[in-house]
Task: structure prediction
Amino acid sequence: MGMMGSLLLLVVLLLCIASSAVSSPLPIIFSDDTKPSAYEVLESYNFPIGLLPKGCLGYDLDPDTGEFSAYFNGTCSFSLEGSYQLRYQATVSGRISAGRLSDLRGVSVKVLLFWINIIEVTRHGDQLEFSVGIASADFSVDNFYESPQCGCGFDCDGASSSAFDRSNLL
Result:
């Protein structure tokens, strides 16, 4: 799995896709008082919650087209496993359907010295395929059962429980 594959694994943790295969998830229809969280919406489309970092403030979703936008309190950046660096913009958007996030905007992974946009995440059984356009890499969904925290990812010993630590914003 070369360097590009390792970087894409980090990207997978960013966005945000799920634990068990579902043949055809149903679109979510809800009223404002029962609106599920963005993390619950991911799960309803068979994606793990770990594709989104902690601290999502809200979202918009058109159940007919799958167009979505998820909102955060500023830009979020963190390292995973001490080497992969991911960055989420204050708004992450794209299109969601059963087992596929496409037309993604607002999530990038650092490869060497460059930030590369993750444009698609596709689920194939227990594997998630992350694409940056010219390359892709597969990772197990087991890596995305928890959401990372801005600033510290999964290595947050002694860190504030706040999802967005402004000292770590870009």
